[in-house]
Amino acid sequence: AQSVTQLGSHVSVSEGALVLLRCNYSSSVPPYLFWYVQYPNQGLQLLLKYTSAATLVKGINGFEAEFKKSETSFHLTKPSAHMSDAAEYFCAVSGETSYDKVIFGPGTSLSVIP
Amino acid sequence: DTEVTQTPKHLVMGMTNKKSLKCEQHMGHRAMYWYKQKAKKPPELMFVYSYEKLSINESVPSRFSPECPNSSLLNLHLHALQPEDSALYLCASSQEVNRVYEQYFGPGTRLTVT
Questions:
Q1: CB A49 to CB B45 under 8 A?
Q2: Site from A29, A67, A102, A108 to mutate, B interface, most B CB atoms within 10 angstroms
Q3: B100 and A45 in contact by Cβ < 8 A?
Q4: Per-residue pLDDT tens listing for chain A (114 residues)
Q5: Which end of chain A is more exposed for a tag (fewer CB within 10 A), N or C?
Q6: Which residue of A has its CA nearest to B89?
Q7: Do residues A10 and A109 make contact, with C-beta atoms less than 8 angstroms apart?
Q8: Contact at CB, A107 and B31, closer than 8 angstroms
Q9: B26-66 pLDDT tens trace
């Protein structure tokens, strides 16, 4: 069955430093992959998605992710962290059982230190 | 309009009460979802409606009863809940584009069962 793991339940970075949030997936079919962000007391917002069109995907707020099939990874990066990036980040996968069923990873909480 | 609205924002109910959560979208999306989210955890899928028909029920207890009166509206009827049902309930909608379902989430209803 499809699954997602996110290494590091909590990541801290300094303001202006590189943000790297890790996501690895397991899927028996070519996956569709997503990164969502959740700010406190809010719903989830889509940052970016991989749909097999391009391996490097650019999203909103300066984030990007690279799909690496050989490593079954889809890590999220941002060159320079901003205080407003502090939030919970979820990696998600779909496409195995049905295209409308999205499997979320456990999440990574990002803290940004001034 | 890319908004999913949910009412109420907060709900406190006793174990013998009957209440309903409401979700609305006007993006023309034909898939709508209910998720349950506990603190510091990813959303857990409860139900999926596709073209106003229930397509996925993730073995949710019968004290949760979904309803999709029309393509824009999704309800979740609650009856005889347990304290462990206290959580953030998220609604989402999506439209398929080349087998990719990009989900738009509402802000959620914070439910407390006393």
A1: no
A2: A102
A3: no
A4: 888 999 999 999 999 999 999 999 998 888 889 999 999 888 999 999 998 778 999 999 999 999 999 999 999 999 999 999 999 999 999 876 666 688 899 999 999 999
A5: C
A6: A43
A7: yes
A8: no
A9: 999 999 999 999 998 999 999 999 999 998 888 899 999 99
